[in-house]
Amino acid sequence: MRVAGIDPGTIHTGVGIVDGSPNTEILVFYKTIDANPKDSLPNRLGLIHAELVKIFETWKPEVVAIENIFFYKDFKAAVKIGEARAAAMIAASRCNVPIVEYLPTRVKQSICGNGRAAKTQTEFMIRQILQIREPLSADSADALAVALCHLYMSKFDRLKKEEVSYV
């Protein structure tokens, strides 16, 4: 299964693509889409959308996993993240790729074993799991974490369906 993970932001949007089988996770691609903070919000969202469409058309993920908004003290920041999420969802929809959403705590739990893990812990685990030698931006690491979370949750769901009940 090929999964694209998205960590949405109006200035930095992380995207990571992984292939997964029952026992392996393979890094395919990762990038941080950097928008100019001096550009207008509509222009930044347009850039995010256009870049994601190119990435989806090139790498052909079977599903897009995106981080859901959990809780923000800053209402304006939450709205902007929601707008970046919308740009990513529209790009996926335009490319006919289904979308799944995960809470940040679920993503961190699946990667680090702790739903409140620090960003540095997440980056460390992503680099270990996918055997990445160079440092990752926080946005790319988070995007890869979301993609891996979906792979792990899909495996779990498959195993649950295959359980045999004994009487």
TrEMBL record:
Cellular localization per UniProt: Cytoplasm
A biological-process GO annotation: DNA recombination
EC top class, as a word: hydrolase
Comment on bound cofactor: Binds 2 Mg(2+) ion per subunit.
Keywords assigned: Cytoplasm, DNA damage, DNA recombination, DNA repair, DNA-binding, Endonuclease, Hydrolase, Magnesium, Metal-binding, Nuclease
Entry keyword Amino-acid biosynthesis: no
Catalytic activity: Endonucleolytic cleavage at a junction such as a reciprocal single-stranded crossover between two homologous DNA duplexes (Holliday junction)
Record GO terms (molecular function): crossover junction DNA endonuclease activity; DNA binding; magnesium ion binding
GO cellular component terms attached to this protein's record: cytoplasm; Holliday junction resolvase complex
Record-listed E.C. numbers: 3.1.21.10
Cofactor names: Mg(2+)
SUPFAM superfamilies: Ribonuclease H-like (SSF53098)
Residues that coordinate or bind Mg(2+) 1: 7, 139
Xref: InterPro entries: RNaseH-like_sf (IPR012337), RNaseH_sf (IPR036397), X-over_junc_endoDNase_RuvC (IPR002176)
Binding-site list for Mg(2+) 2: 67
Family (UniProt): Belongs to the RuvC family.
Subunit (UniProt): Homodimer which binds Holliday junction (HJ) DNA. The HJ becomes 2-fold symmetrical on binding to RuvC with unstacked arms; it has a different conformation from HJ DNA in complex with RuvA. In the full resolvosome a probable DNA-RuvA(4)-RuvB(12)-RuvC(2) complex forms which resolves the HJ.
HAMAP family linked to this entry: RuvC (MF_00034)
NCBIfam families for this protein: ruvC (TIGR00228)
Name the record gives this protein: Crossover junction endodeoxyribonuclease RuvC
Organism: Candidatus Danuiimicrobium aquiferis
